Amino acid sequence: MGRLLPLFGFLALFALLGFGIWWNQYHETNEIPSPLIGKHAPEFTLPLLDNAQKSISEQSLRGEPYLLNVFASWCVACEEEHPVLTQYAPQLGVKLIGYNYKDQPDDAKRWLARFGNPYALTIADLPGSVAIDFGVYAAPESFLVDASGVIRYKRIGPFTAQIIEQELKPMIAKLSSSATP
Amino acid sequence: MKPYLTLLLLALVLCCSSAQAIDPLPFKDRAEELRFQLLTKQLRCPLCQNESLADSQAGVAKDLRQKVFAMMQAGQSDEQIKTFLTDRYSNFVLYDPPLKGGTLLLWFGPLAALITGGFALLLIVRRRARQAVVVSTTTASEEDW
Q: Residues of the signal sequence (chain A) (predicted)?
């Protein structure tokens, strides 16, 4: 027994290493869990991207669920995500709202003209101050907000077809089932 | 020669300390600047997680520094500022996470490992010492023979 002890020690360390490798494969260690999930979306009033005179508030969005997609023309991963969002937007069953983050309006408009505009409407946060309230730290990020204005799900990084099917769609399905009790 | 050297060193130190301030903020005095620097050093940049808010050049870090500064101007305490940030970015922004259920392992894990290791070492040393005594008495008796 005593002679086997070092072997057990080694096996324990080996198991720990294996667990670490396995864990990192399935978990993005850079992702910050949002403390906002289950809480009310922060209050904001932001101008529309294509009409700076008109602004949209958090309250005016209540009543139906929406997916808020944080994007910017300077964001490379957004370019990757954009075709996926454009493809899935009509079949998601929730309103897709663009959140233009720290971007020059002209750059953003040109970007949308070039890659297509899947958003029902786009709000612009040039200074990025409201984004702090949302806990945004990079683009793309997306928030699923339910009809009463509560954040139900957050995605950090680009959506892929797989993530939409496996994570987003079930979350949206849960929204509609809890909305009609 | 010596005064020149001192001057040179002083110049070096001064130029380095001014290089630390990434974006110039209108501090009202040195104490406020020190408080700001101390606070932002304890906060972690959410984007580049191996850098503090004080050091990071990331856009969000710059925005957060400005937010921290604005909150300081508004008379908020360090605790209030930290709470504001953890409400939005979770405990990840703190280099010193608070002591609670989920962080017990983080806080006491190393201590537990140290104690376990210490006990193991103690056991091994004791056993060896006992064996050594047995060996030495047997060799001693052999020599007597």
A: none
Which DSSP state fits A147? T
Question: Looking at residue B30, which CATH number applies to its domain?
Answer: 1.10.8.640
pTM: predicted TM-score of the whole model, two decimal places: 0.76
The residue of A32, A34, A102 whose CB has the most chain B CBs within 10 angstroms, and thus the best one to mutate to test that interface, is A32
- Which one of B59, B60, B90 has the shortest CB-CB distance to A35? B90
* B56: nearest Cα among B64, B48, A125, B115: B48
Decide if B4 is inside a domain: no
User: CA A3 → CA A7, A10, B116, B119, distances in Å?
Assistant: 8, 12, 19, 18
ipTM for the complex shown: 0.79
Structural domain of B116: 99-139
Q: Quick: pLDDT tens for A56-106.
A: 999 999 999 999 999 999 999 999 999 999 999 999 999 999 999 999 999
What domains sit in chain A, N to C, each tagged with a CATH number? Answer: 34-178 (3.40.30.10)
Q: Which residues of A touch B (CB under 8 A)?
A: 30, 32-36, 102, 127-129, 131-138
